[in-house]
Amino acid sequence: MPVIHPSQAVVHEIHGARFVSYATPLSGSRELCAWRGEIPAGTKAPVHTVSREEIFHLLSGELLITLDGHTERITAGDTVIINPGATFGVENPTQETAISWVTTSIGLTAELADGSVLTPPWAN
Known about the structure:
CATH class: Mainly Beta
CATH architecture: Sandwich
Shape: globular
Radius of gyration: 14 Å
Number of domains: 1
Mean pLDDT: 96
Structural class: mainly beta
CATH superfamily: Jelly Rolls
Number of helices: 0
């Protein structure tokens, strides 16, 4: 039975945020990836278009989420469904780090506004 303990999670940092990866093919997952996102106060991540569906659940804090040009404030307990091909942005305008849990299928890529493509290791 694969059990991933916190000490075994792999930490990635990009665009001012931390992605603490628990489930990937490297940890034994065959279909899904899952990670904890840590979005520090004042962080504004670049808008990107995702290739696969993501389920974004906010565990603590508040965020401004922009999905296909529509911005909404979310708070702890809210879940955002991000469909493939959606343009997604995250901003933390508060004074505290927001913590999220995100799940997607293996193979997610993200295309940034400049056309560059990110293949995040926490989702592949």
